[in-house]
Amino acid sequence: MASINVTELIITGLFQDPEIQKVCFVLFLPVYLATVLGNGLIVVTISVSKTLHSPMYVFLSSLSLVEIFYSSTVVPKFITDLLAKVKTISLKGCLVQIFFFHFLGVAEILLLVVMAYDRYVAICKPLHYMNIMSRQVCHMLVAGSWLGGLIHSIIQILITIPLPFCGPNVIDHYFCDLQPLFKLACTDTFLEGVIVMANSGLISIISLFILVSSYAIILVSLRNHSAEGRRKALSTCASHIMVVTLFFGPAIFLYLRPSSTFTEDKLVAVFYTVITPMLNPIIYTLRNAEVKNAVRKLWSKKDSETE
């Protein structure tokens, strides 16, 4: 393994203007808190509710848990850096951030695929649903999503660790990611960039193809359902499709193309690291009467206990 001379990296951040950074701090701190509280509320509600134990809610709870961890790998440091004059991170800390960012990001992608499969079975094979989506199968699918993210991230980090970093040490981003870090390596990283593009980009493309195919089959099959059944199924699927669109659009834009210096990359990254994790609980709860009722019962129970 090549020796590493650089031990600390300087992060340029999202904006250079101190006043704009203060405005961003005021905007993004509540967004992060809302992300943690909103997703945490979904996890707690599904865990304690007696009515939300179907496979769909097991997957939703897992997705919300991933969102909390995923957002927390980047956003807390990003927010604190907005008030710092010099934004630094150790090289080891940078590699750790990259590892967990990709681990949790791919785990989320695979969970979205699992949720689409769950809706496909529920709508297209309702009589066999409980046999196909047994508790054991649900747990295996959730574990498989986490394992898939772990394997993906290990591959990414193993091609990064051997790279020599001997200067410069300024990473042109507001958090550590592979392409900005590759630009600092003291060697040609074309091959590593291709591997990253193939690994991250193809996972996104294949998963998106599976998702689109699943929802297309679901929409076609709804023609044989009652009006009430179509309405309920469409409401649930619409929530999933919104989340999929919000997550996959920026991810494909950033990872399914060669390394570039596009200035809009940072703004696109803000969307899927800061904004999307907050929107997911809002999208799912606003369009799901069962979750909303369970949240009301949870809070009314807490209120009665405190009186």
From TrEMBL:
InterPro entries: GPCR_Rhodpsn, GPCR_Rhodpsn_7TM, Olfact_rcpt, Olfactory_Receptors. It comes from the Eukaryota. Coiled coil: none annotated. The chain crosses the membrane at residues 20-44, 56-75, 95-117, 137-159, 201-222, 234-255, 267-286. It is a multi-pass membrane protein. Keywords: Cell membrane, G-protein coupled receptor, Membrane, Olfaction, Receptor, Sensory transduction, Transducer, Transmembrane, Transmembrane helix. One of its GO terms (cellular component) is plasma membrane. One of its GO terms (molecular function) is G protein-coupled receptor activity. Residues 38-284 form the G-protein coupled receptors family 1 profile domain. Signal peptide: none annotated. It is found in: Cell membrane. PANTHER family: OLFACTORY RECEPTOR. Belongs to the G-protein coupled receptor 1 family. This is Olfactory receptor. It comes from Rattus norvegicus (Rat). The lineage of its organism: Eukaryota, Metazoa, Chordata, Craniata, Vertebrata.
